Amino acid sequence: MDNTSFNKVIDFAVEKEVEAVKFYADLRKRATFPAMKGMLQEIEDMEKDHILALEQLRVKGLSDGNSNSAVSDLKISEYMVEETEFSPDSFHEVVLIAMKREEAASRLYSDISSRFEAENSDLSSLFKRLAAEETKHKLVFEQLYDDFVLRDN
Fold first, then answer.
1. Vertex 12, ends 4 and 143: CA angle to 5°?
2. CA-CA distance, 27 to 37, in Å (whole number)?
3. What is the mean pLDDT of the chain?
């Protein structure tokens, strides 16, 4: 892969992470409960870390890293209907939309990774790692959903 193509891939990934940061920042500003604001800030910070990692990768180049570590997945969000309108003060709705966003990000990075498997294993590994990170974020929201929404019903 030439440098221009590599930078286009990194640009695309950074753009998606910037969108996620804006989403969580907006939710955090609209939320009224301190605990929800704190949770959203943590996820926003994790997405900012992804941007930094991608930008560092652009400067330093690719490394092998550990892309084979398994991440738990409760698969709760795969069985839910996506909500487009939600209240930032509804814990249930915020957690639901966040887990669906993280699921979509993980699926996106997994798809990108599979496209680079034959051509560039280092780039494929990078996107596998990003997919795993997004799956970890999704797991946080699934656990919150399981602990505070499903158990209350």
1. 145
2. 8
3. 79
- 120-145 pLDDT, tens digit per residue, is 777 788 889 889 989 998 998 898 88
Separation in Å, CA 2 to CA 57, 120, 123, 126: 15, 11, 12, 16
User: What is the Cβ-side half-sphere exposure of residue 31, based on CA atoms within 13 angstroms?
Assistant: 21
Q: Which residues of 102-126 are buried (b: 16+ CB within 10 A; e: fewer)?
A: bbbbbebbbebbeebeeebebbbbb
Tell me the three state secondary structure of residue 73: coil
CA–CA dist 115, 120 (Å, integer): 9
